[in-house]
Amino acid sequence: MSYAVYKVLHLLGLMLLFFALGGYTLKGKPEAKSERILLAVCHGVGLLLMLVAGFGLLARLGFKGAPGWAWAKVGVWLVFGAAPMVIKRTPERL
């Protein structure tokens, strides 16, 4: 795939991730099962798109290994991956 396709997928994943996190913060702990499933799917798909497209971008740019800044971004990715758990446990603080 081309650089532009990877970049669009990466940004689409970022948007899905922030839409899901916004839904979690607005709802706190969603009561309806369908809402929980929708938020979880958006969050998971967004994270997956960001990870796959991000490493695809690294490969497209010609990096043989992951540089230090890429590992820092993986750390931020892990923090955003755990964010719904923190939001669900402390909804009164938001």
Would you mind describing this structure in some detail?
The chain has helices at residues 3-27, 33-60, 68-89. The termini are far apart. Helix 1 (3-27) packs antiparallel against helix 2 (33-60), helix 1 packs parallel to helix 3 (68-89) and helix 2 packs antiparallel against helix 3 (68-89). The protein is built from 3 helices and no strands. The relative contact order is 0.17. The longest helix is centred in the middle third of the chain and has 28 residues, at 33-60. It is 80% helix and 0% strand. It has 94 residues and is mostly helical. The mean pLDDT is 88.
Which term fits the overall shape? elongated
- Our count of helices gives 3
- Low-confidence runs of at least 5 consecutive residues: none
Rg result: 15 Å
The biggest beta sheet is recorded as: none
Q: How many strand elements?
A: 0
Percent range of helical residues: over 70%
Global mean pLDDT = 88
Strand content bin: under 5%
Find the structural class using helix and strand composition.
Answer: mainly alpha
Question: How far is it from the N-terminal to the C-terminal residue, by CA?
Answer: 40 Å
Q: Which series of helices and strands comes N to C?
A: HHH
